[in-house]
Amino acid sequence: MAELIVRPDADPEVSSLDGRMETYLLAGETWANLLAGQNFATNDSDTSARIEIKSDAANDKWENIYRGILSFPRGILPKAFEITSATLSLRGLAKNDDLGITPDINIYAFTEELEDNDTWIDNTQAMWDGFGTTPFSTAITYAGWDITGWNDFDINLDGRLWIPKTGNIRFGIRNANYDATGNPPVWAASEESNLYWYTADFGDGSYAPKLTIVYYSGQDSVDSTVIGNKVSLEAIRNLEFVYGGRYYHSKEGLAVYESIYHRNT
């Protein structure tokens, strides 16, 4: 078993990035229209990023939503690996709830290909639509958001399966209880609520977002434990993974482990 810790590059990026993306309305509009996206702005060089919801002065109208984008290098991860755990950590900076909606925050897929080896964010509809809605962790509440320490998201099976065999690891960060669900918050005139975290561009980079992956690979994944004349189930599972077992999503969206012996029967 091995551990890998990766962080995005600071500006100017080389092979990965962290930043934010927002959609905004030139005039106040409905919640549905705001979520659909109209005008976009991005930044990958600020020292902080945030999720944010901002209301308009007009009754029940809205102005902005902010989301975060993270791209991590795969580092030393081999092509054949099995992740046992993954933790995405954001160093909190600030929070504000003038809107009074207690926004929470969670991790999701980010599906859109970034340009120039993941070093540049475009202002396009495709980018905005690239944020997933399936949660990859348990959301951290507004009250639980630590503004003086690390906020750790334990990545679930869906999130671990999202980590690719090749290419960079991409995650989207968004508000969970309103943005990701599509449910509008209670409106109040010209207020905002947000959660901030540090990016790789702050200071010496020690507060940069980090992804910690614990994984099995190759011979490291083989547990040769023998109890009496029986090989442990862990050994069989790991040998199957190395030599042909696999995880995948079924058509119903369920995470499935398929044994090589099951496939050969």
Task: Describe the model.
The longest helix is centred in the C-terminal third of the chain and has 11 residues, at 233-243. Helix content is 14%, strand content 37%. The chain has two domains: 2-215, Galactose-binding domain-like (Jelly Rolls), CATH 2.60.120.260; 222-263, no CATH class. It has helices at residues 31-36, 125-129, 157-162, 176-180, 233-243, 260-263, and strands spanning 2-6, 17-29, 39-43, 48-55, 62-72, 82-97, 106-109, 150-154, 169-174, 192-198, 210-216, 226-227, 230-231, 246-249, 255-258. With 265 residues, the protein is mostly beta strands. The strands form three sheets. Strands 1, 2, 3, 4, 5, 6, 7, 8, 9, 10 and 11 form an eleven-stranded antiparallel sheet that branches. Strands 12-13 form a two-stranded antiparallel sheet. It is globular. The chain has six helices and 15 strands.
